[in-house]
Specification:
Length: about 325
């Protein structure tokens, strides 16, 4: 089966399931005939190529066709994306799975509604001419962002190296690429879809790296769409309509990556990155957006239980909640 045909099938399955879930209607307009307004909070304080599906949904009219008027907002810092959603400043958010796990621990009223990506592509990176291995990490200056994902994943790699955070120097940064290339940090923590295209764009060569999933960390999705529970309780159809629209946009952007990136850059001309970087980053992201069966969004008990058990194992959680406390596929269901 060709890639285009596979994606067309994915779109048909997602659209069919969600339209049926929404009572057979594409539109979620309010009783007044006006679109339903919702606020979508981003995972990062600044925009990047992972916003491509959101921009496509806006510019190609998928949100409008679903009867939605969506406003994209940004958190003040990387540690606040879940807080923006929990406080009701946004209705739906793009956050990490660790954000979700810790929000559930604190009873913040957030539930994951769909995977953005499907596996763990986070790791530790060095410059192209600098080797990296577990036995090279001691004493190194390692960058992080102060976000929950980095704080949760780094201990797994350090444990695999028989190290603790006292054996390295962890510094919080705003953007690690220039610091890594200038030698101001020895090791950058990031995901493959951000660091590999960035280093390639700047140097023409790939960085060296260790993936956390190969060194003790769970292979679970990094990012999910999540919802404020109060909003979802009052606006279930709007949540279903959002997933339908963003699913259609994701498939379109998968089939048309260059056009999708151009659309993103037109919407955010000051995004601060080159077209080559944005295109490579989006295309690498596409390697992680679908499950093994080609589906979008669908989550499993296993991914949440394995994440919870892993976080408990490193002391970040006292107990693992039932998987259903972390997520629901109900907004994708036929019911």
């Amino acid at each position: 089966m060709t890639r285009t045909r596979t994606l067309a099938l994915v779109l048909a399955l997602v659209a069919g399931a969600l339209v049926a879930a929404c009572g057979g209607s594409d539109s979620q307009e309010s009783a007044s005939g006006e679109p339903t307004k919702l606020t979508l909070s981003y995972s990062w304080p600044t925009v990047d190529f992972m916003a491509v599906p959101i921009v496509v949904a806006q510019e190609q009219g998928y949100f409008a066709q679903a009867g939605l008027e969506v406003e994209l907002i940004f958190p003040p810092d990387p540690a606040s994306s879940a807080k923006v959603l929990a406080t009701g400043d946004s209705d739906i958010g793009l956050i990490t799975t660790t954000d979700t796990a810790f929000a559930v621990k604190e009873g913040l009223g957030i539930t994951a509604i769909g995977n953005y990506t499907t596996s763990n592509n986070w790791g530790l990176f060095t410059k192209p001419d600098v080797p990296i291995a577990l036995d090279t990490l001691k004493g190194k200056k390692i960058s992080g962002y102060g976000d929950s994902w980095t704080k949760a994943m780094l201990p797994f790699v350090l444990n695999a190296a028989d190290l603790t955070e006292q054996d390295v120097e962890v510094v919080t940064v705003d953007w690690d690429l220039p610091l890594l290339l200038s030698g101001e940090v020895d090791v950058a923590t990031n995901t493959t879809n951000f660091l590999i295209p960035g280093v390639l764009d700047e140097t023409g060569s790939k960085p060296n790296y260790l993936l956390a999933k190969d060194n003790g960390a769970p292979d679970v999705p990094v990012w999910v769409y999540a919802v404020n529970d109060e909003f979802a309780a009052a606006n279930a159809d709007a949540v279903k309509a959002f997933l339908l629209a963003i699913g259609e946009a994701t498939v379109w952007a998968s089939d048309n990556p260059e056009e999708a990136v151009a659309m993103y850059e037109a919407a955010y001309p000051d995004n601060g990155s080159s077209t080559a970087y944005n295109t490579a980053g989006w295309e690498d992201t596409l390697a992680y957006v679908r499950g093994a069966d080609g589906s979008l969004f669908t989550m499993t008990d296993e991914q949440w239980t394995s994440l919870g058990e892993a976080l408990k194992g490193i002391g970040e959680l006292d107990e693992v909640a039932p998987a259903s406390d972390y997520y629901t596929n109900d907004y994708l269901s036929m019911g």
